Structure formats: structure tokens, C-alpha cells
Amino acid sequence: MPGRLRKPPRPTEPEVEEGPYNVPGLEFNEPLTWRAGRPIPVADLFSRLQSLSKELGSKEEEAIDAKDITKLAQDLVNPNLLGHKDKGIRAWTVCCVVDVLALCAPNAPYRPPQLKDIFTVIVSTILPALADSSNAYDAQHTYILRQLVDAQSIVLISDIPDAEQLLSTLFTVCFDIVSGSAKNTSGGELVRLVEFQIQQLLVSVVEEATLPQDVTDIIISQFVRVDPRSNQESLPKKKGSEPKDKTQSTLLLKDYPPAYNLAKYICSTCSEKMSASISQYYSNIIANASTALANEDPRSKPSKRTMSPDSDSENDDNESFNDLRKAHRLVRELWRAAPDMLINVIPQLEIELAADSVVLRQLAVETVGDMTAGIGLAGLPELPALDPAQYPLPTIENSTEVQLSDNPLLKPASPKPFMHVHFPTYKAFLGRSIDKAVAVRVAWTNAASRILLTNAGAIGMSVDEQSVLLSCLTKILKDTDEKVRLAALQSMRSFSYSSVVNVLGSDGGLSQPESLLSAVAERISDKKLPVREQAMLLLGSMWGVASKDLADGNDQVQSVLGQAPSKLLSARFLNEPHTTSIVDRVLYECLVPLNFPPVKGKTLATEGQQGVVAAGELTDPDEIRVRRILTLVRDLDDRTKTVFFRMQHRQAEMSKGIKTFLKACEDYNGGVLDDLNEEKRLEEQLTRIIDSFSQQHPERTKASNDLWKFVKAHDRRNYQLIRFATEPEYDYKTMLKAIKELSKRIREGGSGTSSMLDTLTAMLYQCSLVIYNRSHIPAIMKFARSPNMSYADVAQEVLREISDKVPEVMKTHIQALCQELEEAAHSQKSSESASAVDALKACSAFSKRFPEDVPVNRKQVLS
């Protein structure tokens, strides 16, 4: 017989604690806690908490006595509520808790352990949820944040013992929320409100709490977000500390990240409190690095170790050095963001400037220099070098100071004049220009150039302050070490044209023997080839960009750069092959660049890459080029003008030699030679020609090998391109296209031929008729008839040289010369002009060489 089935037990109501709260002034009187195993249903609990929060939020601070609310307050921090698995229950519970804290302020009805539980929930679950505005309980999370700020309840976190980890988590979470807010696509106004509340929250904590070092690290690590080098790097840390979260190193290169702005707000608002923390942080870094530096020979480089690279001690030293460099980079950004916070750090930099360690002095020089220049962690933008081939060329009158960058991260900006605010430190910085260590002097050179380039971080400098830097740089250019001299020259290549004239040339330019640019010109005869090359290219580029103003007769520019061509061509008197090769390069890449101006048909468009051609300006490319050539010749002194004309005569002679060379190449490779004597004769002829060319090249052996390689390649198209470039019957456009195509073919010909490019380029510079080109003759004749006597005289002189040395280029223009003679024929009403006399001399010289090409006109003979 089956057993009797038991009836299921009747459901019972949960047993709750007896006795309501009975809080005077509070209608809520429902229990919130339960005995173990008899929980309040979630729906009921949710409703009760919601009702309680609404009522508490509507009460004023003095409406309820803190003693009467104690039991309710204790129930709200019951682990069953704070640790409830339902997110809504937790959110409403914390809403009630922050309301109780606000009503009971300034005395919280909780013991420290309970406060720790409360803030742990807030920091670990409530605040992180603010990053998602689509969260179902976002309104409650926002309310909690606002109550913490408005009632200043957040400062209670400082009453919790051993709250270092909790504070670190709080700051990390808040910065993560702000850094992610840019991705929030909904509730833009709400996001800004949340950011503002977080700002006030963290400021309250900083002002009231004793910040652990980890919190200081977290705050200043936000400034590293703008450092392009920090993608794979962490913040300088103490030995044994945990690596920072990689999400803390996100970079936004177009604008300051929100987390950066938050850290800047904290540091600016709490500058006195943060100043002490930053000073301690920086001192720790210096102390660790000093220990490592004590094991180093001050005269040795940090990378040279005496111990095993696998030793733990060296690894610690390397970490200390890296932290030291990162800390110095960080100081630059802190100066831009919150300079008042560095009041105790900058004196430490002054001490470093006088330290025994070369590493410390170098880092201090770089740091102080960038702070003065207003350069932060992002550094300077990539600055274009002076381009002498640009068109239209700039003018000093119409040019405005070039903005280095529109990106706020890259734009130099010093919040205060460092030179004045921290004069003792800046004075110590100036003294490092004569440091005994080469590395420090190089660092100082670059730093001083940056200060001049940025106009002291856009703050500006007095005439005396600028003169001091220029004077120091002038002495640097005469330094005994070539690395220092070379660094000074290279640092000037980033200056814009207006900066070259108004800043680098403010002490008189080339017209003053003791000026900075005169010191640059002296480096043209430097003992070291790299220094000579940089000096010549720099001075040539400066003159090339200034040629428009020089042609227009600008007195300021003429005083600063007018003597540059004479200084450059005087290097030919050194009679050194390398220098001679550089002079050719400077002439055809800087003074009169081959591709200047850009050729677009017969005339140039009215709008160029760098600006708009002014009304009345020349538009014919040949006339524009000739005007630059005549400006160059006009600025030469008698001695270097002779050098210039000899160079052009040499080109004409070598163009004939190259014609012979190409004929010999074709004969040598033309087929099977039956006569061994003929083959030997051609080889000997090629050897003589190649030796002749090689003797003028700085690397004779390489030049000879390259030319023999060219001969054996037997590329007929290359032969023809060289003819186009060197023979006088071809115009400038044909010559330029031939040089470009030849360079491209050699460059793309593979490793077997690409090595020949330098040799062939040097040879083309020596053989091509770049100046005495047939395309230039009409423009020279036009300038010779110009009412501008300075150009007329120079044009007539150049015309005489062409007719005397290279009359063959005038074949296509002899008819025009004869027509000019006819128009300027002597009569009773007019006297003979100088241009007519020069035209007659030119026709005479041409007729002696090419009598059959002179046009016969009875009227011209009779006149």
C-alpha cells in the first residue's frame, strides 16, 4: 500500500525585524534588512529603497536629527544591501547612503570599516558605470556622484585607515571614465556635467587627503598621454612598483585628451598641495638616478658599462636612467600645463646644471631650453627646411611670422616668461654654452636655437636677451669640436625666411664681421668637410629664398644676405676637390636651382605653391630665372665674379669634351672591331677622357669606376639624354627634362647602376649649359635694354661673356641682335646706347666664329 503523500508546506512571509525606524520627520517606516535565508523579494526591496531615496533627497540638512537616523543608516550599509547581486538594489542603496551622509554632515554615522565598504562599492561599481550613459541606472550613478561633490562626502575617504589602494583606484577609475567619455555618442551635455563633477570630486580629495605616491604618479601620468614616445612606455616608477595600466597611455595627437585636461585642472587648482607631491616625486627619481650615476665615470657615456649586461644591478641602473629621462621630459609638459606646480622642482634643475654628471647636465640643459621655448612632450612639428626652388618666393614685407603648427600639442606656448620668472636658473643655463663636455655644448646649441625659433615660447624676448643668445651661438660656431659647430649649423636649417632675416640677421648679418651669419660664412673654409658642406648649403639656401627681395632692392635683406654669393664662390680658392664639388652643388641647387621656377608651358600660372604672384610680376619662366641669375652676378664682388664666369666657361669647354666622350662610347660598343689597334685606341681615348673627368671629382677612384660602368652599360637613351643636357642647341626645358629623366633611369636601374648617380650628377653640373643656355638669351637682351641700370649693366656684361666664350648658343638669336642694332642705329636724333654697343660686340664675336650664320641685310649694312 503506497505511503501517504505529504502536502506541500504553506508559503510563509519572510520574517523581518520587529520595530519600525520611527525617524521623526521621515514617513518611511519599512524594514530593509532580513534574517538569514529569508530575504525580502527584490521587487519589494527595490520599491522601498526607491521610496526612501526620494524622501531622503527631498529633506534639508537640519530636517532630521542625526541620532534618530542611526539605525536606518546602519541597516543601509548591511552587506546584504551593499553587496546585493542586483545592480539596481546596489545603486538605490548607495543613493540612500549618500543622502544620509549629506543629512548627517559633517559627522558621518559610520565607523571607518563601514566607510571603507561604502567607498569600495562606489569606487569599484558605481563610478565605473558612469562611463556608459546607456546604463539603466545611469541617473542614480550620476546622482551619487553629484551628492558626493555637493555634500563634500567624498572627503570622508581620508578618514579610512590604509586607504592608499582605495585612493589609487578612485583616481584611476575617474581618469578612465574621462578618457572614455569622448567615445560617448549620447547625452553630450550629460557627459560634460559628469566631467565637471569628477573634476570637483578629485579636487576635494586632493585638498583634504594625504596623497600616496601612487596617486601622484597617476595624476602626472596623464600628461604623458601627449608624448608620441609613450605608446609602449610606462610612467617613471619606483623600484618594485607595479606597471601602470596600458590604458593610461592613450594618445590624442590632434588635441589635448580629456584626462590630460582633468589632470591639468587638478594641478592648477591645487598647485600648492601638488607642488609638494611633484617635488617629492622628482626628488625620488633624482635620488635613484644619482645612485646609478655614482657607479659611472662622469666622463663616460651612460651606455658604456663595466659590468655584465645581464646583471641585476645594471638593469636597475638602466631603469633609473630611463626614469630620469622620462621625468625631465615630463617637467616640460608640466611647465606648459601648470607652471606654479614646479616652484620646488626648478631649483633642482639649477642644481643639475652644475652637477658633476654629464648626463644630468645634458638633461637639465635640454629641459630648461625646452621650457624656455614652451615646447612640451609632443615636441616641435616637423619643420620644412628653406626651399630656394619654391615659387613664388617670399618677401620680407609681406611675410608674417610662420605659425609652427595649428595643433595645440605641437604649438610652442610658454605660460610665463621663463627668463624672468626663473632668472637664476636661466642664467645657469646660459653658462652651459661653454661646458667642458661636448654633449652638453651640443645640447645647449640645439636648445638656444629652439628658443630663438619659437621666440621664447611665443612670449617674446627683449633685444638684449636675443643678443645674448646670438652672441653665444656665434661663439659656438667657432667651437673647437666639429660636432658642436655642425650642430649649430644644422639647428638653423629649420628657421623660416622671416626668422632668418629678423632673428638670425638681427645683429647685422653678413655686413657685420662679428655677426652670427658672418660666423656661418667663416665655416665655409672649415677644416672639417661636413661642417664646410653644411655651412655652404645653409648660406646658399638662405640667399636662394631671399633672392626675390634682393632683386627688388630690399636694403634690410641686402645687408643681411647680400654678400652670400661672394662668400660661397670664394670657396673655390681653396682648390680642394670636395669643396669644388660642393660649390657646384650649391650653385645649381640653392643659388640658381635647376627646377626654378616650375615650368608650366611658356608662362607660369598666377598662383604658386607658396602664394600668389603679385600684379606686374614676371610670368615667363626664362625671364624669372634670368633675373635671379643677374641678381646673383650683381651681388658678386670682382674677385668672385671672375670665378663665376670661369665656371661657365669651363662648362662650355667640358660640354665639348662630353660630346667626344659619348662618341667614343658609341664607337667602343658599336660592334665587333676587327682591328685590335682600333679597339686599343678607343680604350686609351676613353681612359684619357675618364681620367680627365675623374680628376675633378673628390673621389677619383669611385668616379673612374662609375664612368667605366656607364661605358659598359651602353645605354643609347642615356647617351642622348646627356646630349640634350650638354649641347648648346637645346633649350632649357629640354635640358631640364633630360637631367630629370637620366637621374630617374639611373636611380631605378638597380644596384648595378644606381651607384653612378652621384658621379653623373656632378659631371652634369660641370658640363650642362645651365646659365649660358640659349633660352636665356632673349631675356638677357631684354634686361640689357631695361631702364633699371643695375640690371642693364649686369645683363650687358653677361651678354659679352656669352658672345665671347660660348657664341654658339646665340645662333637662334643672332637675327634679334641684328634687329636691335638696326633699331638703335646712330642718327642725328639719338646717341649710341651702351646696349647697342654690347649688341654690336656680340654680333662681331659671333660672326668671327660662325660667319656663315650671320644674316645679311642691306639696310643694316647701309645704316
How does this model look, in words?
This protein is mainly alpha-helical. Helix content is 58%, strand content 0%. It has helices at 42-57, 70-76, 79-82, 87-104, 112-126, 138-150, 164-180, 188-208, 213-221, 258-269, 271-294, 312-337, 346-353, 358-373, 418-421, 423-431, 438-454, 463-476, 482-491, 497-504, 516-522, 529-551, 555-561, 564-569, 577-591, 621-634, 638-668, 676-694, 700-713, 716-726, 732-747, 751-754, 757-767, 777-784, 789-805, 814-823, 834-849, 858-862. The longest helix has 31 residues, at 638-668.
Which key phrases capture this entry?
single chain, 863 residues, mainly alpha, 38 helices, disordered N terminus, disordered C terminus
Outline of the structure:
The chain is mostly helical and 863 residues long. 58% of the residues lie in helices and 0% in strands.
Distance from N terminus to C terminus (CA atoms, Å) equals 155 Å
| Low-pLDDT ranges | 1-19, 231-252, 297-314, 605-615, 827-832, 858-863
Question: Structural class of the secondary elements?
Answer: mainly alpha
**What does the radius of gyration come to?**
40 Å
The tally of strands reads: 0
Largest sheet: none
What multimeric state do the chains show? Answer: single chain
Shape: elongated
Counted by DSSP, the helix tally is 38
Name the average pLDDT.
83
Strand content: under 5%
Helix content class: 55-70%
